[in-house]
Specification:
With 191 residues, chain A is α+β, with helices and mostly antiparallel strands. Chain A has helices at 4-10, 19-24, 82-87, 108-117, 120-145, 148-158, 160-165, 168-175, 179-187, and strands at residues 28-32, 37-39, 47-53, 56-61, 67-73, 78-79, 94-97, 101-107. Chain A has a domain at 2-118: Sandwich (Jelly Rolls). Chain A is built from 9 helices and 8 strands. The relative contact order of chain A is 0.15. The structure holds a DNA duplex (30 and 30 nucleotides).
Chain lengths: 191, 191
DNA sequence: CGGGCCTTTGACTGGTTTCAACTTCTGTGG
DNA sequence: CCACAGAAGTTGAAACCAGTCAAAGGCCCG
């Protein structure tokens, strides 16, 4: 049974058997405890993370001190502050473990070397980014199209098992409203 | 002076001189008049568009009949409904020319053949999607972080010349509020 | 079993929408 | 080149979605 990251690559591009271990050597294995921060505001956006097990979230703290979650990443998803990672600058975001989480991490110069040595991975990441971009394009549509209440129902219909996995205040933080308002929605009968 | 699309490719990957014309043969040149629809709701998301000259917008019509603009694409930007394009399904969106616009268009199967014949373009699109994804990640941050009024000031500070280019009702449609409210913001002195 | 974190409740507030009417701009044909 | 019709922008009043604040209740984990 190959390493999970390699299995995931092979869903998108074909690799020779010996490539797996060679590719893995570019990555660092790291583990984080629930609520531990992988990255904090002001840090260099050093790593691109692949989630092997667990769940991460990307959030920022607004000027009222409230945490706004932008994304979650569960098994087989990639996560970073891409703007800062690309330009190798400091980030305005936090990345935090929602559960105990195991990742494979790669820094920017190492990722560049990885692309040189394994150009097939350009295709892999082309496909990954294409999907991610498509998903975000759709997400922006929902943010404009749906009321906060409709966003909640949309999300709980589409990802019922993920809802089980996270506390309500994180769901509220992701959907962009307050825990109080989420309570109010849940109290009412569904329209 | 090479075709603009080829020049753009060469900013990201190196091509042999003879590759330019060969790559161009995969694309269709099309022109659209201001306010003409390239794509309408219910159409197949057939093409991926590269804007040579002019400006496109991607929008949908909500259940109140209001047009909500998700993105603009000006010179050297790519545009499509990526979710529908990827899965070769019908789209919920419209793509419309904001000005008289010239594009290069490629359909999905042709794009697949293009990647087979010119694998360097996997890298090009990996970089294009990476940038686009990073930009959208940041956009979602702004949507959560800023009030409608702040969104307007943010946008007009960062893209003053683009603002000159488009009518106010399209700006309001992009920022997610009503033309009436935009009037109100502009009437007030800036805080 | 205790403390702190999470969730709920209710009253008040405000940013933004809605609607309708009015004014100004723009482009097209006579 | 002017006239006019439709499109775009402005104004003000009333309504509403969702936030804020404060306080009480529930529940998980040490």
């Amino acid at each position: 049974m190959a390493e999970q990251l390699i299995q995931h690559l092979q869903k998108f591009v074909s690799l020779k058997d010996e490539d797996g271990p060679a590719i893995l050597r570019f990555f660092q294995a790291k583990s984080f405890k629930k609520k531990e921060n992988l990255v904090e505001e002001g840090d260099m956006a050093k790593f691109h993370y692949f989630v092997v097990k667990g769940c991460l979230r990307l959030f920022f703290v607004n000027d009222k001190g409230v945490e706004q979650t932008l994304q979650f990443a569960i098994e087989n998803w990639w996560l970073s502050d891409y703007m800062a990672f690309q330009s190798q600058k400091t980030t305005d975001f936090y990345i935090q473990a929602v559960e105990n989480t195991e990742v494979r991490a790669i820094d920017y110069p190492t990722q560049e070397r990885l692309f040189e040595e394994f150009p097939q991975l350009e295709r892999y990441f082309r496909l990954i980014y294409q999907r991610a971009y498509a998903a975000t394009q759709l997400r922006v549509k929902y943010l404009f199209d749906l009321s906060r209440e409709e966003l909640y129902y949309h999300f709980s219909d589409h990802y019922p098992d993920f809802i089980q996995r996270i506390p309500q205040y994180l769901l509220a933080s992701f959907l962009g409203f307050t825990p109080e308002y989420l309570s109010e929605i849940r109290k009412k009968k569904r329209p």
